[in-house]
Amino acid sequence: LMAETIKGMQDAGIIACAKHFIGYEQEHFRQASEAQGYGFDIDESVSSNIDDKTLHELYLWPFADAV
């Protein structure tokens, strides 16, 4: 989806690129106080560590395709 979005934007004359870091969404709602503010029922922070296999097999592909 990322590569297609960038291609569509560039075809329309817009300069576009992948701007977020790999695994960035892991940080969203990781802290209990932020998550509770949105109604999530967690009482402690959650680890955002991503192992090497998961990083390469799941998260890296959209960025590699976009380049």
Report the order of strands and helices: HHH
**Rg from alpha-carbon coordinates:** 16 Å
Overall geometry: elongated
What level of helicity do the residues show? Answer: 40-55%
**What is the count of β-strands?**
0
Per DSSP, the total helix count is: 3
Low-pLDDT regions: none
Mean pLDDT across every amino acid position: 82
Main beta sheet, described? Answer: none
Secondary structure category: mainly alpha
User: What is the strand content?
Assistant: under 5%
Number of separate structural domains: 1
Cα end-to-end separation = 13 Å
Pathway: Glycan metabolism; cellulose degradation
EC number: 3.2.1.21
Catalytic activity: Hydrolysis of terminal, non-reducing beta-D-glucosyl residues with release of beta-D-glucose
GO molecular function: beta-glucosidase activity
In short:
The protein has 67 residues and is mainly α. The protein has helices at residues 2-11, 32-37, 52-66.
